[in-house]
# Entry
Amino acid sequence: MKIPLETVQQAREQRRRHFRKLWRMRWLLRWIPSKQTLSRFPMLKAFGNTLRRRKYLWSFNKDRVVPAILIGSVVAFLPIYGVQLPIVMGIAMLMKINLPILAALQFVSNPFTLIPIYLANYKVGSWILGWFGLSLAEANAIFFSMKSTVIGGVVLGTLFGLFVYAAYIFRVKWEARTSEVAL
# Structure
């Protein structure tokens, strides 16, 4: 029994697209620590064995990726720069969600983007607090600015997370639609 040439060509094309997708993912994730390279990073070195043993931290199932996207985005926008990685490691272990995505999202707030992000957090947070009737004149200036920055960080992080989640869902559906072999 001979297999039609068209079917063989379609299978080769599908396999080629699959490998291209894997190489794209590998290129995107090249800076994120893998299970094998945890000992290179000083902060992660102490937790390396613990992190390596928990396979759910490295799973890219949809039910592990989606919460990682949403929670990682909110933590990235909070004014806790410098302690984000230990916090997301704890969150990933407690909630059993994807650690590489949580860690990658923390690089959204880097030294170049801190000032614009924190300024936007403050503006959005003070607008929300003003909308509820709280103003800077009625409150202590330091606590008001801290509250408004945290509230703005949660709001902007949630919006950013929803945007990334929508892009992820679009990508997954697009990949599923284009990877089917036409009969």
User: Anything to note?
Assistant: The chain is about 70% helix and 0% strand. The two ends are 18 Å apart (CA to CA). The chain has a mean pLDDT of 82.
